[in-house]
């Protein structure tokens, strides 16, 4: 404290920006290491605090120079004020006088900064109003400072906010040809005030005043922003959606609404009677249902008017999703006329952003939210009327000639439909809701999907949304794909999946590799593998039926998917993360669930070895999830060999004979994998030891000679004086382990392996 006091008195070295920044960091760390009571006991605490306060105020005034350093100073003050309630003794902390001045200095500096940064009304990544991370840093400590002396602080904010609101209201009535630069500055200043109020309402803390009085001050501040919502979309302001300053202001309002909702709307409303009583007096908002109607009205306005601003659309949908996903707020939304309007009129005419290519990803989210709301109420009639606009699009597409599918209009309509349906599919979380979508789609709409993927295989902007929709549609989350025992729907669905995958795979393999091979080929292939993996392990298809009745759906899907995987070099599989996850996920499903009817075992030996070697490469990778999938696949293969060849009594099946032939042609395959597994267990800190122990036991069971050879090899690589101790570690590894793959035996081996690893690595 003495050293920092001296620097503050002399100002020595603070003209250098680097020194200045590090000095602010040093001050910011004070309260982390010392209690406020310890600081108070220092004899010159009062002088030190005054100097730090003066330094902070000066830093706030030179905001352009010190903008990245002020954050550390504010964090010091926020830590000091949060310690006040725990302070014992009579020594005054002197914070009552200094903190309000600093709070007011910060708010004033933000308002003043707008004039300078609005020299031109263009996007500026360094402007905190454009940069969410920078804004978060600047406002993180402010709520604690404001709530420390909340009454005076809220009054100060209102006194700034009122004239700005009056000026903004007056401008809404003037012609659009007025001074646009001046209006941009007003919008920027209001945006800062809204962000500050939003930050305060995010944190409810009772220091220095009661819960009731705090609610009243919250109501006073919130009322100003809620009042603003009515102004932003009226008069001349309704023509300014292209303006950067207007977009910044609406983003600020959305953040305010999000924070305010979390504190006071829905489940929290019953604990906020004082707040609603005051809001009723100020604005006539009697309860949270009326307030919710205002919020949804703003959401609808943004979705209608911001056709070309992706950022505001995303913020708006994020708020809408938050409201729809809350149990209580979701139910309340359905009572509102504004929500009913959105559900009944979700066409492109009412919401132009659905037509905008730059907002294309937002469509899925929009329909996910609408789907959640529609599915909250029972009733196929409501669902069918909701789907009417989408049905119209589908019917128009079905009527289009093949040649028309190449036109931009048809391609955009089709990809839009796929994104919309994917959102609705994401919202189906029960057997009932999934059944509604399934009946809408199958069988009438499925030929359209097959036709599109066949005609436009070389257009990834079409095939990707289609395959992603199917990937969601076949996923059996929350057991939603549960059909009646007499229903063939699971089998029928898989046949449609097979047709799509075969149509896509057989054509994509014939296409030449483009300049961007990931976009043109690999992306579609990995999504296809995900679709097939989810269908194969979804537990809603009895796959034995296909072979029994001579149906090629399963065999064809497996064949084409293997051809797709084999068309990609292993180096590329390991390079592209999403491709890698899909490939190994598919291999795990294939080896675990379909090894007996598995086309992997019917391949020639070199191809089979290539696939198994790729599993070994996955084991050695850094991704624990992929390593676990590879271990599971290898365990299934080794267990199949042990059960059907090593310990099998009956005549071996064709699949078992094929596997024996492959291993006979390359006997070093299993020993090499066992060696890799032991190296990972002994020398690496694998987080999935349990998963790795499974294939180790299965491989040891196949051949004790293989294990003995590996043991001798590992011991020979160790120092002579360690070999006897390490040999005993290997002896203990097989203690009480029998020659079987029963669950109890596996668990015993896993326990032994943990002990083995610990003892082997001990110095």
Kindly describe this structure.
Helices cover 72% and strands 0% of the residues. The chain is mainly alpha-helical and 763 residues long. Among the domains are: 402-568; 604-762, no CATH class. α7 runs parallel beside α10 (150-172), α16 (310-325) packs parallel to α19 (362-376) and α35 packs antiparallel against α36 (689-702). The model has no long low-confidence stretch (mean pLDDT 90).
Low-pLDDT stretches are none
Q: What is the residue-mean pLDDT, rounded to a whole number?
A: 90
Strand portion, in percent?
A: under 5%
Structural class from helices and strands? Answer: mainly alpha
Q: Approximately how much helix is present in the residues?
A: over 70%
Attribute tags:
single chain, 763 residues, mainly alpha, 0% strand, globular, XPO4/7-like, cytoplasm, nuclear export signal receptor activity, nucleus, Exportin-7/Ran-binding protein 17 TPR repeats domain-containing protein
Describe how the helices and strands are arranged:
Elements: H1 2-10, H2 17-33, H3 36-40, H4 45-61, H5 63-66, H6 70-83, H7 95-117, H8 132-139, H9 142-148, H10 150-172, H11 180-202, H12 211-232, H13 244-264, H14 273-283, H15 288-305, H16 310-325, H17 327-333, H18 337-344, H19 362-376, H20 380-386, H21 388-398, H22 408-427, H23 431-441, H24 446-455, H25 460-473, H26 489-508, H27 517-536, H28 544-548, H29 553-566, H30 570-575, H31 577-593, H32 605-620, H33 624-646, H34 654-665, H35 669-683, H36 689-702, H37 704-716, H38 720-733, H39 743-761
Helix pairs in contact: 1-4, 2-6, 4-7, 6-9, 7-9, 7-10, 7-11, 9-10, 9-11, 10-11, 10-12, 11-12, 11-13, 12-13, 12-14, 13-16, 15-16, 15-18, 16-19, 19-22, 21-22, 22-25, 24-26, 25-27, 26-27, 26-29, 27-29, 27-31, 31-33, 32-33, 32-34, 32-35, 33-34, 33-36, 35-36, 36-39, 38-39
């Amino acid at each position: 404290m003495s050293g920092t006091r001296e620097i503050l008195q002399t100002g020595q070295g603070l003209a250098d920006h680097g020194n200045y920044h590090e000095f602010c960091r040093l001050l910011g760390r004070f309260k982390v290491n010392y209690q406020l009571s310890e600081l108070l006991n220092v004899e010159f605490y009062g002088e030190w605090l005054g100097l730090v306060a003066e330094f902070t105020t000066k830093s706030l005034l030179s905001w352009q120079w010190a903008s990245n350093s002020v954050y550390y100073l504010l964090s010091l003050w926020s830590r000091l004020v949060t310690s006040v309630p725990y302070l014992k003794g009579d020594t005054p902390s002197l914070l009552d006088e200094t903190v309000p001045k600093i709070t007011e200095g910060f708010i004033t500096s933000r308002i003043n900064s707008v004039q300078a940064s609005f020299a031109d009304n263009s996007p500026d990544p360094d402007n905190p109003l454009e940069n969410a991370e920078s804004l978060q840093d600047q406002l993180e400590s402010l709520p604690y400072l404001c709530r420390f002396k909340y009454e005076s602080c809220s009054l100060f904010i209102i006194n700034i906010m009122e004239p700005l609101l009056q000026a903004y209201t007056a401008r809404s009535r003037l012609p659009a040809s007025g001074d646009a630069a001046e209006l941009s500055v007003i919008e920027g200043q209001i945006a800062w005030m809204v962000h500050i109020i939003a930050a305060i309402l995010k944190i409810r803390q009772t220091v220095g005043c009661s819960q009731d009085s705090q609610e009243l001050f919250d109501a006073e501040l919130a009322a100003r922003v809620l009042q603003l919502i009515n102004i932003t979309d009226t008069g001349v302001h309704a023509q300014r959606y292209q303006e950067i300053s207007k977009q910044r202001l609406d983003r600020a309002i959305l953040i305010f609404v999000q924070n305010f909702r979390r504190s006071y709307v829905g489940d929290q409303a019953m604990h906020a009677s004082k707040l609603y009583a005051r809001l009723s007096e100020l604005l006539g908002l009697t309860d949270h249902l009326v307030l919710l109607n205002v919020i949804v009205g703003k959401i609808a306005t943004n979705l209608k008017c911001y056709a070309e601003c992706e950022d505001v659309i995303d913020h708006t949908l994020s708020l809408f999703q938050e409201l729809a996903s809350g149990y209580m707020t979701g139910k309340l939304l359905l009572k509102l006329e504004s929500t009913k309007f959105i559900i009944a009129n979700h066409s492109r005419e009412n919401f132009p952003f659905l037509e905008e290519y730059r907002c294309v990803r937002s469509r899925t989210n929009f329909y996910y939210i609408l789907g959640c709301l529609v599915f909250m109420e029972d009733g196929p009639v409501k669902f069918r009327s909701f789907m009417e606009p989408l049905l119209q699009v589908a019917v128009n597409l079905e009527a289009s000639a093949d040649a028309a599918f190449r036109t931009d209009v048809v391609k955009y309509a089709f990809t839009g439909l796929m994104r919309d349906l994917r959102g609705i599919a994401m919202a189906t979380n029960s057997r009932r809701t999934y059944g509604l979508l399934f009946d809408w789609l199958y069988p009438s709409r499925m030929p359209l999907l097959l036709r599109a993927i066949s005609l436009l295989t070389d257009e990834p902007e079409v095939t990707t949304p289609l395959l992603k929709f199917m990937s969601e549609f076949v996923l059996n989350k929350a057991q939603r794909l549960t059909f009646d025992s007499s229903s063939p729907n699971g089998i029928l669905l898989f046949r449609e999946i097979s047709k799509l995958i075969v149509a896509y795979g057989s054509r994509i393999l014939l296409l030449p590799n483009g300049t961007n091979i990931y976009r043109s080929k690999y992306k579609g292939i990995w999504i296809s593998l995900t679709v097939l993996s989810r269908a194969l392990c979804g537990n809603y298809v009895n796959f034995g039926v296909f072979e029994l009745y001579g149906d090629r759906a399963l065999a064809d899907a497996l064949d084409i998917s293997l051809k797709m995987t084999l068309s990609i070099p292993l180096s590329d599989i390991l390079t592209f993360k999403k491709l890698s996850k899909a490939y190994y996920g598919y291999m795990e499903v294939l080896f675990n669930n379909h090894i007996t009817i598995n086309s992997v075992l019917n391949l020639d030996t070199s191809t089979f070895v290539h696939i198994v070697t790729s599993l070994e490469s996955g084991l050695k990778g850094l991704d624990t999830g992929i390593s676990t999938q590879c271990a599971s696949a290898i365990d299934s293969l080794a267990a199949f060999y042990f059960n059907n060849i090593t310990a099998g009594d009956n005549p071996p099946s064709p699949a078992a004979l094929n596997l024996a032939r492959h291993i006979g042609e390359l006997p070093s395959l299993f020993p090499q994998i066992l060696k890799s597994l032991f190296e990972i267990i002994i020398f690496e800190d694998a987080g999935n030891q349990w998963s790795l122990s499974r294939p180790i036991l299965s491989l040891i069971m196949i051949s004790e000679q293989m294990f003995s050879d590996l043991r001798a090899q590992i011991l020979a690589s160790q120092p002579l004086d360690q070999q006897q101790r390490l040999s005993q570690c290997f002896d203990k590894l097989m203690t009480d382990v029998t020659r079987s793959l029963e669950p109890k035996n596996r668990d015993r081996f896993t326990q032994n392996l943990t002990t083995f690893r610990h003892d082997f690595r001990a110095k």
